[in-house]
Write a structure and sequence with these properties.
Elements lengths: L8 E6 L6 H17 L4 E3 L7 H13 L4 E6 L5 H10 L4 E6 L14 H14 L11 E2 L1 H22 L1 E6 L14 H5 L3 E5 L1 H10 L6 H12 L9 H18 L5 E6 L4 H6 L4 H8 L5 E2 L4 H14 L3 E8 L3 H7 L11 E6 L12 E4 L1 H7 L9 E7 L3 E10 L5 E10 L9 E6 L3 H10 L6 E5 L4 H10 L4 E4 L16
Parallel strand pairs: 1-2, 1-3, 3-4, 4-5, 6-7, 6-8, 8-9, 13-16, 15-18
Antiparallel strand pairs: 10-11, 10-17, 11-16, 12-13, 14-15, 14-17, 15-16
């Protein structure tokens, strides 16, 4: 993944001056050792903070060490003013955690009272309106806190990425796809930049890349990746030219930002004017951490990038597309998997899901656009989709979205892709999410979400919820279990 940040962690311990400072230092060292045993790397700041002068020295030390994310550890009660000012002075994400007591035989000089100190710490953070990640239960042993740090890393990676992200768009959303675009003010609120361009800008740049000497090398890499799925070998140079166009545009236009994603218009004019469907190229970039959202879906691109940062893996963007036919459910799913028919649906897009996330993928043509633009005849410029059933396994379906009033909203739902053949076209899978029937009605429909959802391959709801909460998203929905009503849900409905 070439387009997501590397997290360089540091840890600062704090100590209230009426407590034994060595207690905090000893406990800090134990956390570092535990985290390193788990395979992590963390810089141990040698300055223990008792006052504001110490705070400035410690922050300078971790910055000098190249840290871009920080753990503030209350080894004892801690000094609430300097410990919270660390978050103000440090320029990256910060997590706070506190020490649990270690032994019933050592509760005089060995008692730290960090359980109490964590309350004052969080109160002071609130007074100063400072953001920080605080774990669900932020008090623990060295091993407990090492586990908290493991959970913190993907959240920190996403926060660092968002703080230096630019979303580059080409073209307006297609007609009657109003849901694919949304007010961009909320992007600025969370520190994301946007550069909006015309489709003509992209077309001009694409034509300028004709005869680029790098095309042959990229086409050969495509052929190697596709293997038996390379059904149109003559077609690869067109798509290789487009891949180079996007990558060069990103490099030349990232400006002050480090990371770039795209939201491109891909129909109806695109295939005829460019000579191909862009889906396969989009899939290749997504596999490198550079999502290219379909249909100028700005918040889809944002959500995909968040998923890439959280997982460190390829992601995709899919339509919450169609119901599973009852006969297919009866034959292939019922009795084999613990889901109802209404728990299942098909997630689909034309062909943007990375090859590594398909059970078996091949370059094909966009059937719907072929009917529309080539009268259903021998496909030419409607070729370029990457099609196949999505590989089975755990997934998280989610989206961060701006409403018309520019407030941010989000949903997160964990589920799985079932190992059941779809018998359909495109990049497609049979998804199962517990309680999908009610989630669909009382979240997706009732709260006016668009038809696109980002897919992370794994259960990462915990990290996503932490991230959205940190970003100040007040409305974060999830698939409620039976017996837990949604707001506005009819309690008498069957």
């Amino acid at each position: 993944m070439t387009n997501i940040p590397e997290v360089k962690l540091g840890i600062i311990s704090v100590s209230r001056d009426c407590f034994v400072i060595s207690l905090s230092e000893k406990r800090r060292r134990a956390i570092v050792e535990s985290y390193e045993k788990k395979g992590g790397s963390i810089y141990e700041c040698k300055t223990t903070v008792e006052n504001e002068t110490d705070m400035l020295k410690a922050v300078a030390e971790v910055k000098e060490a190249g840290c871009n994310a920080l753990v503030v550890f209350l080894g004892n009660f801690g000094p609430e003013t300097p410990e919270t000012l660390i978050a103000q002075e440090f320029s990256g994400p910060v997590m706070y955690a506190a020490a649990a007591e270690e032994s019933g035989d050592d509760l005089i000089n060995g008692r730290g009272d960090a359980y109490c100190g964590m309350l004052n710490c969080s109160y002071n953070l609130g007074l100063r309106k400072l953001k920080a990640v605080i774990p669900e239960y932020p008090v623990g042993t060295a091993d407990d806190i090492a586990d908290m740090i493991v959970d913190f890393v993907p959240v920190a990676r996403a926060l660092i990425g968002l703080s230096s992200l630019k979303i580059i768009t080409f073209g307006p959303r297609p007609q009657d796809f109003f849901a694919c675009n949304a007010p961009i003010k909320a992007l600025y609120d969370i520190g994301v930049e946007v550069q909006e361009n015309s489709e003509l800008d992209l077309l001009v740049s694409y034509k300028e890349h004709a005869n680029d000497p790098r095309i042959a090398e990229v086409a050969a890499d495509m052929a190697k990746e596709l293997g038996a799925g390379n059904q149109y070998p003559d077609f690869l140079p067109r798509m290789a030219q487009f891949e180079l166009t996007l990558l060069d545009w990103a490099e030349k236009n990232k400006g002050s930002r480090k990371y770039v994603v795209f939201a491109d218009k891909c129909w109806p004019a695109f295939p005829k004017e460019f000579g191909f469907e862009p889906c396969y190229v989009n899939s290749r970039l997504a596999s490198r951490g550079i999502p290219v959202a379909c249909e100028v879906d700005i918040y889809g691109a944002l959500s995909e990038y968040i998923g890439a940062c959280i997982t460190g893996d390829a992601v995709t963007l899919l339509d919450i597309n169609n119901s599973v036919p009852a006969d297919l459910f009866e034959k292939e799913i019922k009795g084999k998997y613990n889901y109802t028919l209404q728990d299942t649906f098909m997630g689909f897009h034309c062909g943007n899901t990375p090859l590594c996330k398909l059970s078996k993928g091949a370059i094909k043509y966009q059937l719907i656009q072929n009917r529309l633009l080539e009268n259903g005849g021998e496909p030419d410029f409607t070729r370029g989709t990457l099609e196949g059933d999505i590989a089975p396994g755990q997934i998280t379906f989610f989206r961060l979205q701006s409403a018309a009033d520019t407030t941010l909203h989000a949903y997160v739902a964990q589920g799985e892709v079932l190992p059941v053949a779809t018998r359909s076209f495109g990049g497609i899978g049979i998804f199962a999410i517990p309680g999908m029937k009610r989630f669909y009605r009382h979240v997706l429909v009732a709260k006016h979400y668009p038809h696109h959802g980002a897919v992370a391959f794994g259960h990462v709801g915990k990290a996503l919820y932490t991230l959205f909460n940190y970003l100040g998203v007040e409305d974060i929905e999830f698939n409620h279990p039976d017996g837990m009503l949604y707001k506005g849900e009819n309690p008498f409905a069957e």
